[in-house]
Amino acid sequence: MKYMNEFRDGAVAQRMAGEIRRIVTRPWAIMEVCGGQTHSIIRNGIDQLLPQEIELIHGPGCPVCVTPLELIDKALAIASMPNVIFCSFGDMLRVPGSDRDLFRVKSEGGDVRIVYSPLDAVALARSNPDKEVVFFGIGFETTAPPNAMAVSLAKKQGLKNFSMLVSHVLVPPAIEAIMSSPLNRVQAFLAAGHVCSVMGYWQYPPLVDRFHVPIVVTGFEPLDVLEGIRRTVMLLEAGEAKVDNAYARVVSFEGNKPAQKMLSEVFETTDRKWRGIGSIPSSGWRLSEAYRDFDAELKFNVSGIVTHESALCHAGEVLQGALKPNQCPAFGKECTPRNPLGATMVSSEGACAAYYNYGRFVTLDAQQAVPVS
Amino acid sequence: MCLAIPGRVSEIFENHGALMGKVDFGGITKTVCLEYVPDIAVGDYTIVHVGFALNKIDEESAKISLKLFQELGVIEEELGPDAISEDGAPHEVHE
Amino acid sequence: MNFENWTCPLPLQDYPSIVIGHGGGGKLSAELVEHLFLPAFRNSVLENLGDSSVMPALAGRLAFSTDSFVVKPLFFPGGCIGDLAVNGTVNDLAMSGARPLYLSAGFIVEEGFPMSSLAQIVQRMAVAAEKAGVQIVTGDTKVVERGHGDGCYINTAGIGVLADGLRIGPRQAQPGDVVIVSGSIGDHGMAIMSVREGLEFETTIESDCAALNHMVDEMLETSTDIHVLRDPTRGGVASSLNEIAGQSKVGIAIDETKIPVKPEVASACELLGMDPIYVANEGKLLAIVAPHAAEAILARIQANPLGANARIIGTVTANHPGMLVAKTGIGGTRVIAMQIGEQLPRIC
Fold this sequence. Notes:
The complex is a heterotrimer.
Chain A: H1 10-23, E1 28-32, H2 35-44, H3 46-49, E2 54-58, H4 63-66, H5 69-79, E3 84-88, H6 102-107, E4 111-114, H7 118-127, E5 132-139, H8 144-156, E6 162-169, H9 171-180, E7 188-192, H10 193-199, H11 204-211, E8 215-218, H12 222-237, E9 243-245, H13 257-266, E10 267-274, E11 278-287, H14 296-299, H15 315-319, H16 343-346, H17 351-366
Parallel strand pairs in A: 1-2, 1-7, 3-4, 3-5, 5-6, 7-8, 8-9
Antiparallel strand pairs in A: 6-11, 10-11
Chain B: E1 4-15, E2 18-25, E3 28-33, E4 45-49, E5 52-56, H1 59-71, H2 74-78
Antiparallel strand pairs in B: 1-2, 1-4, 2-3, 4-5
Chain C: H1 10-13, H2 27-41, H3 44-47, E1 61-69, E2 75-76, E3 79-80, H4 81-94, E4 99-110, H5 115-132, E5 135-144, E6 152-162, E7 178-181, H6 187-194, H7 213-222, E8 226-230, H8 236-248, E9 251-255, H9 263-272, E10 286-289, H10 294-303, E11 311-317, E12 324-327, E13 333-335
Parallel strand pairs in C: 4-5, 9-12
Antiparallel strand pairs in C: 1-6, 2-3, 4-6, 7-10, 7-11, 8-10, 9-11, 12-13
């Protein structure tokens, strides 16, 4: 595919990694905020190409990992209701709530459907006028414009049976919370390239000024990630705290104006609880006044939910980079990919799941078996 | 949050009051909402996330990036496989 | 429906849809057998219509396999549940090196299911069986109430015969063995995905559904130093190789850049955030063979139309037993773990 395969060139990647090796002189801890970048790093084995001095901390950039438990439980409650078609992106189906997940609800008779786009949910509402169609609107700023458009179109089309369970989270407040935490070890950020394609990167200079950390807008293909890391290391080595854009083919300083206009119409800022981290003020979006009729939380009375997070789960500290997964006492014991306690083990790009798989390999590989003669 | 892939716009039309298009992703065609890229034209490339085009791809910028990436580390390579960097670690040159 | 070759289609024409009586064992059931199944499957064993079918004595060890087919949608680009039902069991038998001979076919049909659809499925099974060189010699039909059965479920069981001395199985992989895949991966799974509600594409990806037994015969003619054969169906190449690594207590190391993937399958996977290595195949096999025989076996697979894109993709190692590890396109390493449940599309 054009604009994809060229950015996966193996030989070039090796040379770029060599260049990073050449310029690094001491240890640096860099956080990539976006789950998509974490996925790319693990999928391609990018961190193995990097010099030992570079530590990549996988941040809370995965909506699967950070959607608050209360909201998951609300989703499960709504999805269990008769006459509801509950639509969601595939990512959310295995996220554990207090006592079950959407898959369980499906097996118990709930009409749970995976959709590719929120517009598919709107189409379902059109073609099923006698059912209530609810869409699980999670995600960062990248997914917010599509979700906003879905609600906007539903309103334009006069649909009365469509609503959205909204749990949008925002990147800049997350960066602020991480940097303000006493446990923080992060020295630089790779900003999420597709979030920035929507929002631009005008929000980052104030953060850079306040916390003196380089923030480099980074893409997702191996060469893009390596370039983001390279520019970050250059800034770190030079002691410069700046914002840089390593994904210019898609990201501009102002971002996407039509998208931002729609966002300001459909959503308004709210405090949000981040699973494992706690409440971060003004870190989320909810539907604005004009679109309250489409808010599933108001439409469906799902009060009285008692949430129960496992006391053994340290996902929050892992998400902030304060704890490595294998330092969690439950890691690999009570908590495994098959029986995840928290979201960082459920999601295949959650730090815990990633460590579980790769860490075991490193251990086994080191135990040399008897060589074949 | 961020799975958005590049595709080429092959058709533009309207549906249910929204600007839509057909986008070709390396042989796969999908209908995509183009409301957020109102100036896009047939033949342009765009990145698509959950059925929405989020931004046009700046082809010139892509070319410049690729050229830069290609050139990185080439100088060390030209010095040969025994090139040693300043910190004393030998380079691995992969063909 | 083409009734030209059929003895007497008249009774079936009275019933455009399946009714409960068709599974009742009475006249309606008999009519279904006589006018739908018999003409399609057409063989002397079946035509006896005994409670059980008696075949001639077989020389050699028997291989026996069963599988049930519940695919949705029933008809997809490149095939239907009928093709899967025959080829799936034929392939399971072939994967132990057996020559598939006889199949049974059990149908669970939903009340109201269109007769023409059932006829189409049965017709496809007949064609697949003939291509594979097997006979469907016994069967059963039950009808369940409307709202159950998803249209049609099929179970097939199969018997095959093994040549003397063959020892092919998932515990037989040895360090040093070579891993071969017979062609492009992910075709079937993405063909199904592409017509699933909410995920449709406007480009057709075709399932690779096919019987592999003739190709396996050709491979065994070339060399009997084949240690493992596996058709990577649900869970894809990743699951099959993980299972084999676990059962043989070996590690398997593959090079991702060597694995063939059709461009449209790769694109579809990118779009949905899925990894082709976990996607189902229905017309491909993995062969783990002794290193000295690898090139010859590869060439023989490539000479077969179903194996034109076969490649050597990796080796078996004594390191990291039980784990499947891959070298990525940029020279890194990733562990390809067993998936928990089904692979789902993602946005993240």
